[in-house]
Amino acid sequence: MTSARTINVLGIGGSLREGSQSERALQIALDGAAEAGARTRLITGPELVLPFYDAGVPERDERATRLIEAIRAADGLIVVSPGYHGALSGLVKNALDYVEDLREDRRPYLDGRAVGLAAVAYGWQAAVTTLEQLRTITHALRGWATPLGGSINSAETKFDEAGGASDEKSVRTLRLIGRQVAEFAVTRTA
């Protein structure tokens, strides 16, 4: 990667369960961004337990402020959500709602930033519909969804603590998503 400055890629997602399958998938995607030369940061689980987003309340708690500032500083994002009952988790959706606080920024919302997306669910239907919802939200927030997205069926693919998975294709897909985010960020900052 060639850029005048270091690229920052933020990973958001996972679930409240430490070491969840979606959190492990997110880490693999971030590893792909790091392999492409990006500096990465991860915000998952307990860090995403935020008050319900309310645009009418300007005060933000400490976690929400950290999330907003991390998104503001990011050149690209990777979002991985578990699929619950055919949809993204409320935890991840609420975190993405906080992007509204960037509406008045020089780079409003996710404008000009690549966003890598993946969904991990126990079954193909929820994995695919969750990924589609993540793409729709990304577009609504002016982000550039990477060409490749990941739908991972956790009934067939299991992630391990060592940063791998029972399905090497899923690992390659997630790493490529991370690389696409980092490479797009380089083109935007060059």
Outline the structure in words.
The protein has 190 residues and is an alpha/beta fold. 39% of the residues lie in helices and 19% in strands. The protein contains five helices and seven strands; from the N terminus they run βαβαββαβαββα. Strands 1, 2, 3, 4, 5, 6 and 7 form a seven-stranded mixed beta sheet that branches. β3 (76-84) and β4 (87-88) form a beta hairpin. α1 (21-35) crosses α5 (168-189). The chain is globular, with a radius of gyration of 15 Å. The termini are close together. The mean pLDDT is 95.
Question: Helical residue percent?
Answer: 25-40%
Distance separating the two termini: 11 Å
Rg, alpha carbons: 15 Å
Give the total of beta strands: 7
**SSE string:** EHEHEEHEHEEH
DSSP summary: helix tally: 5
Structural class: alpha/beta
Average predicted confidence as pLDDT:
95
Q: Tell me which oligomeric state these chains represent.
A: single chain
Shape verdict: globular
Percent strand: 15-25%
- The low-pLDDT segments are none
The biggest sheet, with number of strands, parallel, antiparallel or mixed sense and barrel status, is:
7 strands, mixed
List keywords for this structure.
190 residues; 7 strands
Quickly describe the structure:
By secondary structure, the protein is α/β, with parallel strands linked by helices. The chain is built from 5 helices and 7 strands, in the order βαβαββαβαββα. Helix 1 (21-35) links the parallel strand 1 (8-13) and strand 2.
Question: Which helices and strands occur, and which strands form pairs?
Answer:
Layout: E1 8-13, H1 21-35, E2 39-44, H2 62-73, E3 76-84, E4 87-88, H3 90-97, E5 114-121, H4 124-140, E6 144-145, E7 150-153, H5 168-189
Parallel strand pairs: 1-2, 1-3, 3-5, 5-6, 5-7
Antiparallel strand pairs: 3-4
